[in-house]
Amino acid sequence: MSKMDKYISPTVMAIPPSGIRKFFDLVTQTKGVISLGVGEPDFVTPWHIREACFYSLEQGYTMYTSNSGLPELREEIAIYEKKKIGVEYNPVDEILITVGVSEAVDIAMRVLLEPGDEVLVPEPCFVSYAPGADLAYGKAVPVPTYDEDEYRLRPDVLEKHITSKSKLLVLAYPSNPTGGVMTQEDLAALVDIIIKNDLIVISDEIYSELTYVGQHTSIASFPGMKDRTIVMNGFSKAFAMTGWRIGYACGHPDIIAAMTKIHQYTIMCAPIMGQMAAIEALRHGEAEMRKMVDDYNYRRKLILSGLREIGCSCFEPRGAFYCFPSIANSGMNSEDFCEKLLFEEQVAVVPGNAFGAKGEGFIRCCYAASISNIEEAIERMGRFITRHRKC
Amino acid sequence: MELKQKILQLMENDARLSPRTIAVMLDEEEAKIASIIQQMEADKVILGYNTVINWEKVDGDGAMAMIDVKVTPEREFGFSRVAERICRFPEVRCVYLMSGTYDLSVMVCGETMKDIADFISHKLSTLDNVQSTVTHFMLKRYKQDNLIFEDPQEDKRLVVSP
User: Fold this and answer.
1) What is the pLDDT of residues B131-141, one digit of tens each?
2) Which residues of A touch B (CB under 8 A)?
3) CATH class of the domain defined by A47-284
4) In sequence order, what are the residues at sequence separation of 6 or more whose Cβ sits closer than 8 angstroms to the Cβ of residue A167?
5) What region does A198 belong to: left with phi over 0, alpha with psi -120 to 50, or beta?
6) Interior CA angle at A74 toward A69 and A79, to 5°?
7) Domain B57-139 indexed as CATH 3.40.50.720
8) pLDDT tens figures, A232-251
């Protein structure tokens, strides 16, 4: 077969394939694996939400919606966000329903970036932000966050990375992969810097409901920050609706209108059945969501205690459903550790460097797994670490 | 929620959770959890630990029936004395007092349908206060104690995802 590479845009060619993809192939070839490598809830979508979707299909809701999404859903989101983060959004022109937060991130970058504009991305972080910036002809600037700070973004470190080209800051807390959170005080320390440097913030709050210690705070809730923040959230994590692909962006009407412009030409609208299910989730899903959050919290404590018992140093993750322990005492790098752990003990965890260079020396362990699988995985990891301990 | 209730909720879903695991999950001392469980066993808050079995998958799935029983209540005792008496038969698995057109709902197990029929005609119907019975044989169990019998339950997620 002839090579077609030369036809592919150099921008796309330059984007490295996801480190997770490579590891995924390895895991699928191995038998008897206990996976702590998953990035989604282990619950299926609550039945009443699925049932609301069936009902909407029975009623004939199979058509396009407005580009912005169903008005009822945007109204529910306005009520929900007001209650959750204390910020009021007009459902008419300040909220856009997207195909997951991933789409919202993509179109926000395309709307805001000019070639050469810099996007400040605290690392380690979810895998999409840097490629998103590249595809919008911007430039991702990794801003390191540190284990000893529990991966909070430090104001002094942020300031050091700001240049005249800095335009966007991504804040994604609670964090995938670390489970770290930013408290109200942590965020307050960033506000002046953001305003002084005229930055726009993409606040990816997809894990915000999964905050186990204290309350989630959004950067948008600080004075002067609403207009320069695009709050993004969705239904995937809190309501166990990953496959439905329903997310949303809330922000200044000018930015939302510009995002809607791209959305209408590329997506048209998010699928109506998912939007109908999302309405049900917001109207009647809170009790079930709280139960799931309690359940994650139990398992968070279990895995953290287990990891520490087998000698992994790990700060207490206060959000999302990940632990991010250090593997320094194995003397291995993240990828070698994960490959050997997979081959020798059939446990899948994700190498920390898949989430940026600052993740090297760490692994991501997801505790959205059954209690028996967590306990078995910890036992196997304990054997592995004892065998390979270097210091 | 009170600690006791949290423990019960966890144990209702999985009776095999050890006091140590529960202690870690609830940020408590293992000894404290063990003693609360012991106390709840002594107080009969926790009555026992059963296993939910799909007998259809092994030999000898037996027969089961739900029986609607009409009872003449007794002065001072109401339905309780006859209900307690019915409970003592080893064939009887569950007894509930119901609202509606009958009084007691009795679940009975036997090796065959004939065993159950014999139990009803010789033991249950002949009790003094029992006016009548209507027997419904169970054909198939789909869900019991919050567990779906033929639920594939396998993890359908990708094994690794971002």
Assistant:
1) 999 999 999 99
2) 18, 20, 23-24, 27-28, 33, 35, 37-40, 42, 126-128, 176, 298-299, 301-302, 305, 348, 350, 354, 371, 375
3) alpha beta
4) A112, A113, A114, A117, A118, A119, A138, A199, A200
5) left
6) 170
7) no
8) 999 999 999 999 999 999 99
Query: A200-204 and A229-234 as β-strands: parallel, antiparallel, unpaired?
Result: parallel
Distance CA B97, CA B102 (A): 9
Which tokens is B115 given? Answer: 């065993």
| Structural domain B3-42, CATH architecture | Orthogonal Bundle (1.10)
Fold entry, domain A5-45+287-388:
Aspartate Aminotransferase, domain 1 (3.90.1150)
pTM of the complete model beyond 0.90: yes
**A59-67, long-range: CB < 8 A, 24+ apart:** A61/A272, A61/A273, A61/A276, A62/A272, A62/A273, A63/A272, A64/A268, A64/A269, A64/A272, A65/A97, A65/A269, A65/A270, A65/A272, A65/A275, A66/A269, A67/A260, A67/A263, A67/A264, A67/A268, A67/A269
Contact A119, A140 (CB under 8 A): yes
The domain spans of chain A are 5-45+287-388, 47-284
Q: In Å, how far is B120's CA from the nearest CA of chain A? A: 39
Structure ipTM: 0.85
Which parts of chain B are beta strand (E)?
63-71, 92-97, 104-110, 130-137, 143-144, 147-148
CB contact under 8 A, A37 and B160: yes
Token digits for B19? Answer: 């006091």
The closest CB to that of B159, out of A38, A42, A128, belongs to A38
Task: Give the minimum alpha-carbon distance from B15 to chain A in angstroms, rounded to a whole number.
Answer: 13
